[in-house]
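Researcher: Please predict.
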Amino acid sequence: MPAVPSPKHERHPLSNPTDLIEVRVARKNVEAEGITSFEFVRPDGGTLPAFEPGAHLDIHVPGGLIRQYSLCNPANETNRYQIAVLRDPGSRGGSVAMHDQLNEGDIVKISAPRNHFPLQAGVKHTLLLGGGIGITPVLCMAEHLARDSQSFELHYCTRSPSRTAFHDAIKAGPFADKVEFHFDDGAAEQKLDIAGKLSSVSPDTHLYVCGPKGFMDAVLGKARELGWPESRIHFEYFAAEVVHKADDGTFEVEVSSSGKVIPVAPDQTIAQALAAAGIEVPLSCEQGVCGTCLTRVVSGTPDHRDMYLTPAEQEANDQILVCCSRSKSPKLVLDL
């Protein structure tokens, strides 16, 4: 999930079972090669909780998994939620279960929408960059900006037209003149010039980017290289690889509320060590992208390995994603 420079992130745990919403799959549709959309409605036809562009749902996927998916339908709709899911055979099972096991008419439990990737108010111009399935929150943003007659442009990068979800709908939609498509298998002149685009916009432009890690790293790296301030950079990672280092060693975690000290082995995450000691921390992505396990650090120095916190937030060393990050100091005291 996303990282926004300010205000500081606070933990947003997964919804309690009593807070979950039952919805029915009203429509399941193939949007592009490997990408399927799902439309959820209340079984009784009632309204759903309102949401803002950039919001996502926790979806209780068949098989017991919980995964986050961004909402891509217009944010002024309260009768339905729409998401799109890329089938990834290399994933940990969530996307495959959505594609293969969730069908029209099925009932599924979801959280209310939550937003770690919001649009900033009062912005003169917005630059939206969506890579692959990262189009989902960005598309919702474009719909909102167009409806409010705000200045923006959308650049949508994919491997090919056949892998471009919502391609025809966007081309025929009300803001088609603000969208440029860029295909990896297309001519060189239509490919996105990241440096050129980031250099050509006005200095008060805000950047929003979402997509695969390589795409994200390229865009964010170039923006920072060109001197974009963090306050104008907004991003959301969908997935990341948990980093393991050859010199990872054992360290200790102390639970501030009880004083209990728990060793974390080189091949364990903090979350796994806590769970083995009977201390459960809410988890979802287990890759450092969604922020579900964000925990306050009382003392010690984290070894940040997440894609959720901004560089400034990581430098503050007062929060940690316990699903993936470790410790530079012999002990971390956590606010648990």
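Model: The helical segments are 94-101, 135-147, 167-171, 194-200, 213-225, 270-276, 311-316.
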